[in-house]
Amino acid sequence: MTPGAPVIDGLTIADVPRCAELEMQMFAGDSPWPQAAFRAEMNAPYNTYFAARDAIGEQAMGYAGISMLGGPGAYESEIHTIAVDPDRRGRGYGLALLRAMLAVADDADAPVFLEVRTDNHTAISLYERHGFATAGIRRGYYQPSGADAYTMVRPARTRTEQTQEAPR
């Protein structure tokens, strides 16, 4: 059975074991998050975490998290993580998760920051298509592999820009 469009909803404590499993599968060489890290991040009041599922009530096939920092008129947001089960890549799961996080930032008129491996061309392309630009490089950012990361930023979107942005 080929999955359809992903369902995006809130990540729950019940999803934590699946997320930690995906972390081990995808990021084994770069300190994958354990279950405790997911629980701590989900409990922080300034963070919002999403799950991508094949259907309502099914296990997470991807997850993403964004934090909102600052205060009214001076918010900034940072994408902490975005990951998709390798069997679901190229099917819109990452795009759907990114859009959910960008909506959080747009609701607060906040710029969005993130780090991405310099060799993750698929993710970099997705981010660039959604208004991100490279702002710098962090040498040896990912540990223990020592892989470099680009810091990317997308400026805050005005309400006009949000409504004019074409779906992709």
From TrEMBL:
Q: Which UniProt keywords apply?
A: Acyltransferase, Cytoplasm, Transferase
| Xref: InterPro entries | AcTrfase_RimI/Ard1 (IPR006464), Acyl_CoA_acyltransferase (IPR016181), GNAT_dom (IPR000182), YpeA/RimI_acetyltransf (IPR050680)
Statement: the UniProt record of this protein carries the keyword Transferase? yes
Record GO terms (molecular function): N-acetyltransferase activity
* PROSITE patterns reported in the protein's UniProt record: GNAT (PS51186)
- Record domain N-acetyltransferase: where: 6-157
Annotated SUPFAM superfamilies:
Acyl-CoA N-acyltransferases (Nat)
Task: Work out whether the entry's keyword set contains Acyltransferase.
Answer: yes
Q: Which protein family is it in?
A: Belongs to the acetyltransferase family. RimI subfamily.
Give the protein's recorded name: Putative ribosomal-protein-alanine acetyltransferase
What is the organism field in this record? Gordonia amarae NBRC 15530
